[in-house]
Write a structure and sequence with these properties.
Layout lengths: L3 H6 L7 H21 L9 H32 L4 H23 L7 H18 L4 H6 L4
The structure holds fe (ii) ion (2 copies).
One fe (ii) ion binds next to α2 and α3.
């Protein structure tokens, strides 16, 4: 299991401070999720564990929605040429997160390393691969 510092150090800076702060907020929620499920590998979750899981995933989904909306608005405002493609990436991420959330709501989960890495992978792949593509664009537009 990576430590909190190792997780944070994987996050690349996209050049726009408000967007980077959002990304840090998303990472913080995923770290909270981790610490919630971290000791469930060897025991069954209690009702209290489940309600914590539901609540952190709800926060994550609200935060994600607001972040994607803001990011897309900023792209639209400055005429980012890959907006449609990026929006489609966001749409897929939202549907993956909803699927994950549904699974948890059905209490259909075996806590394992896989579950731990799902959200990390979900977030970092997008930020480090797709969000990083707008870094130069916003820099040229003078948006920081
Ligand atoms: Fe994005
Ligand atoms: Fe983003």
């Amino acid at each position: 299991m990576p430590t909190e510092m190792q997780i944070r150090s994987q996050l690349r800076h996209v050049g726009v401070s408000r967007l980077h702060r959002d990304h840090e907020g998303l990472v913080a929620l995923i770290i909270t999720f981790h610490s919630t499920v971290g000791d469930l590998f060897n025991r069954s979750p209690t009702a209290k564990d489940w309600s914590r899981i539901d609540s952190v995933l709800e926060d994550l989904s609200d935060y994600t929605f607001r972040h994607f909306q803001y990011e897309e608005q900023l792209m639209a405002k400055h005429g980012y040429p890959h907006l449609a493609e990026h929006r489609e990436q966001h749409r897929q991420l939202v549907s993956q997160l909803e699927g994950f959330q549904d699974k948890m709501r059905r209490r259909d989960a075996k806590f394992s390393v896989d579950i731990d890495f799902f959200l990390l992978d979900w977030l970092f792949t997008h930020i480090n691969r797709y969000d990083m593509k707008y870094k130069d664009f916003f820099e040229q537009k003078g948006v920081s």
